[in-house]
Amino acid sequence: MLAERLRSFLRPIGSSPANGSPYRHPGGRALTALPADPRRRSNGLRQFFDNLRGGSNLRILDLGGISQANVNFITLQGHKLYTEDVLRGLERLVSAAAPGSGQGLVARFLRENLNFPAGHFDGILAWDRLEFLDEEMLGAAVARLQATLRPGGTILTFFHTQAKGQTVNVHRYEILDQQTLDLRPRAARPLPRAFNNRHLERLFGGFHSVKFFLANDNLREVIVTR
Hints:
Elements: H1 2-10, E1 14-15, E2 39-41, H2 43-52, E3 59-62, H3 68-76, E4 80-83, H4 86-96, H5 105-113, E5 121-127, H6 135-148, E6 149-160, E7 167-177, E8 180-190, H7 197-203, E9 209-214, E10 219-225
Parallel strand pairs: 3-4, 3-5, 5-6
Antiparallel strand pairs: 1-8, 2-8, 6-10, 7-8, 9-10
């Protein structure tokens, strides 16, 4: 059932410790250490802001939750930032779902987490949040995001390149400048599925264009333009 599949996707293997020490499996096995320098150059982020260039007082949606660094950066550019922590919203929804339930979860997720007017946003920072959605929920979420974008609007999203089932870090992405991110791990989770370029082209097939940037740290950055 949908609720059980989502619970398996969201099962935390470790959580981000405050002191930056390695993640640990419940049995004590270290998973992923916080890098000495968590800064990351992002061609996708640069392209995202290039697409917004020339606009003023634009509306940007951040699906990674509230980040003061992102609020400061976006507002200093003269834009408005809206935030929604879709992964936390999904966790709340799944934890409250009755065993064996599934009917209505997709509609409820959209209503509680992506309930915005059509054409409301000029850009959406989805980060790595979409890849932890069930296939049915993912398709519905992408359709909703497309509807909330104005024509010509842009989504920046990330997908890990590891194989299904491998442990990946879920990060908080903080914007340092128009091409640099600060990555702060929140948890380590099993990757529910693997996406290649063809999968992503189908997923975003209703958009005007899809562009990929493959980095050296197992993240595929995707720029999607309506």
